[in-house]
Design brief:
It is built from eleven helices and 25 strands. By secondary structure, the protein is an alpha+beta fold. Strands 14, 15, 16, 17, 18, 19, 20, 21, 22, 23 and 24 form an eleven-stranded antiparallel sheet that branches. Strands 9-8-10-11-12 form a five-stranded parallel sheet, sandwiched between helices. Strands 7-13-25 form a three-stranded antiparallel sheet. Strand 10, helix 8 and strand 11 form a beta-alpha-beta unit. The N and C termini lie far apart (about 100 Å). The protein binds nicotinamide-adenine-dinucleotide and adenosine-5'-triphosphate (ATP). Keywords: ATP-binding, Coiled coil, Kinase, NAD, NADP, Nucleotide-binding, Transferase.
Length: about 525
């Protein structure tokens, strides 16, 4: 039934209509037609309410569909998050195992990295043992420092007493990648009377002193260069005859040397690529003859620990090659004698994790980079669309040509060209530098060394992305694939000409002409 107000208005409408047509009122006619009208109105009202119902149920269906989609989306997101959590734990567990293996194989007495071995405790010094009753062997507590302090006295106007309340004690604990850790605490904080002070902030200038004479040297050379070839044969001869060292070279170089003279029969090399994996256990030094690219090549040969590298400059630039090739005798004499300052150049450890990979065993081998890993649009003409996470916290979405994750050594390379800052190579950090971002506010970042970064190609990305490692080995990343990157435990120790800082400053002055400007003359207006 239509509502009464509607009926009334319908009655009025019918009466006025009848009058206007005939000029008089016929009640029977009127009653008959009124009934038809009511039926008609009822019919049209029913039809109207049907339409409303249809519209309403359509709306309900749309809402239900949206809710279903949202639920499906949420479930998918939850499943994806769970999958990532699983992969992340596998990654952590694998790193932990690698670290333990490394320590065992090296007979390394040093404590493993905090993030790699979680259940280990740092040996306690005396202070910590004192502390045991209140905070356990692994804590560092201000309490025992403070409790032995004599009370300071100062006049209190209200009570008339001359004393200070004891300073509150506290405990600092270290937190890294979601876990408590006490690694490094003695390096970082010194507890003096409950004050927090930093003792060491980054590695200091490191000096290498030989405890026995070096025996084995690997000479790595830039290919296709006559100058390098000539220098290489001279250097190899000198190392053998003057220094009595065993010289190793790559198979290509051995062939080149033998083509020159059979004298070089003594030079050693390897036949099977697999032997490269054990080189670090035999070599005392690596000498490179070339530019920065040859240092990168040397670093890439060592997937684990790297022997000290002495880089000679035979390229156009040379940020990592402080030694002049013409002075090779004096330089090598001084390095072989020691002590020698070294720069510990941090590397990044990169894992490509395929969306399709469901188990740890399907994972690709990690790749170590000395400069950077770049994720870019490669041959795709679409914007790269990269989701970036730092220790599982969403950082940002890169929409542009790509992203560079660089070491501080690589900060003067591609990252610099993309607008990143130059950073001293001993500063432990990871540079996060976008390449041509399509945004006005995307400034580069420098993140702390302990983080794990995950760069993922989202499922809704229009194109694929490509990862390259120190400018080499392109790998395609499809939707759902990700690159996980963290600081590697094996740095590249490079010998310094003077020391780490002087060499770095010299390289940016000479290599980049950093801040070259004519000095303003005294001759002109000045402050009164
Ligand atoms: N637009 C760019 O600046 C750009 C583009 C691609 C690659 N690169 C860099 O090239 C590197 C590969 O070097 P390569 O010699 O094998 O290739 P390459 O022969 O193409 O040389 C690239 C240049 O980068 C210089 N370089 C390399 N490492 C450096 C460092 N740490 N600091 C300052 N300069 C450095 C080299 O001396 C060389 O002049 C990549 O790791 C990347 O950093 C730079
Ligand atoms: N032993 C090697 N075997 C194969 N490739 C090498 C080797 N050493 C260097 N390379 C490659 O050769 C290329 C050039 O090397 P490098 O950068 O040392 O010389 P350069 O280009 O003359 O130096 P610069 O770029 O400073 O002018 C790099 O891409 C590097 O990866």
């Amino acid at each position: 039934m239509p509502p009464p107000s509607k009926l009334n208005s319908a009655d009025n409408a019918s009466a006025s209509c009848h009058q206007s047509e005939n000029g008089y009122t016929d009640s029977a006619y009127s009653v008959h037609h009124e009934k038809d009208l009511v039926d008609l109105l009822q019919f049209s009202s029913a039809k109207e309410s049907d339409d409303h119902l249809k519209e309403f149920s359509e709306a309900l269906r749309t809402v239900a569909k949206a809710l279903r989609r949202a639920a499906e989306g949420k479930a998918a997101a939850q499943a994806e998050a769970a999958e990532w959590k699983r992969k992340y734990s596998l990654e952590k567990e694998r790193n932990r195992k690698l670290e333990v293996e490394r320590i065992e194989s090296n007979g390394d007495r040093k404590e493993p990295r905090a993030d790699a071995v979680t259940n280990q405790t740092v040996p306690c010094n005396q202070r910590i043992e004192h502390c045991e009753p209140c905070c356990g062997r692994d804590g560092i507590c201000s309490h025992d420092v403070l409790q032995n302090e004599e009370n300071f006295t100062v006049s209190d106007a209200r009570t008339g007493r001359n004393e200070w309340k004891r300073k509150a004690s506290f405990k600092l604990s270290w937190w890294c990648k979601g876990e408590d850790s006490d690694q490094h605490k003695h390096d970082i904080v010194s507890f003096e009377k409950g004050n927090i002070t930093t003792a060491e902030r980054s590695s200091k200038q490191i000096s290498l002193k030989w405890e026995s004479d070096p025996q084995n040297v690997l000479v790595l050379t830039k290919p296709h260069s006559i100058t390098v070839r000539v220098l290489c044969s001279e250097l190899v001869r000198w190392l053998k005859e003057e220094k009595r060292l065993d010289v190793f070279v790559e198979p290509r170089v051995k062939s080149e040397l033998l083509a020159e003279s059979t004298y070089f029969n003594f030079v050693r090399t390897w036949e099977d690529e697999k032997e490269i994996a054990f080189l670090h256990t035999k070599l005392d030094l690596v000498v490179t003859l070339g530019g920065d690219g040859t240092v990168l090549w040397a670093a890439s040969m060592f997937k684990g620990p790297v022997p000290p590298v002495v880089p000679f400059s035979l390229g156009s630039l040379g940020f990592m090659t402080p030694f002049h090739s013409e002075d090779y005798r004096e330089c090598l004499e001084s390095v072989l004698k020691g002590p020698v300052s070294i720069t510990l150049r941090h590397r990044l450890q990169c894992h490509v994790i395929r969306d399709a990979a469901k188990s740890e065993y399907e994972r690709e081998e990690p790749i170590l980079v000395l400069n950077e890993v770049t994720i870019d649009r490669g041959i795709s003409s679409f914007l790269t669309n990269l989701e970036c996470y730092c220790d599982d916290t969403f950082v940002t979405r890169v929409q542009g040509d790509g992203l560079i994750l660089s070491t501080t050594s690589g900060s003067t390379a591609y990252s610099l060209a993309a607008g990143g800052s130059m950073v001293h190579p001993q500063v432990p950090g990871i540079l996060f530098t976008p390449i041509c971002p399509h945004s006005l506010s995307f400034r580069p970042l420098i993140l702390p060394e302990h983080v794990t970064l995950r760069i993922q190609v989202p499922f809704n990305s229009r194109g694929h992305a490509w990862a390259s490692f120190d400018g080499k080995d392109r790998k395609e990343l499809a939707a759902g694939d990700a690159l996980v990157c963290s600081m590697a435990p094996w740095p590249v120790p490079t010998a310094c000409h003077r020391d780490s800082t002087s060499d770095f400053l010299q390289s940016i002055h000479e290599g980049l002409h950093w801040n070259v400007r004519k000095t303003q003359s005294f001759d002109g207006p000045r402050d009164a």
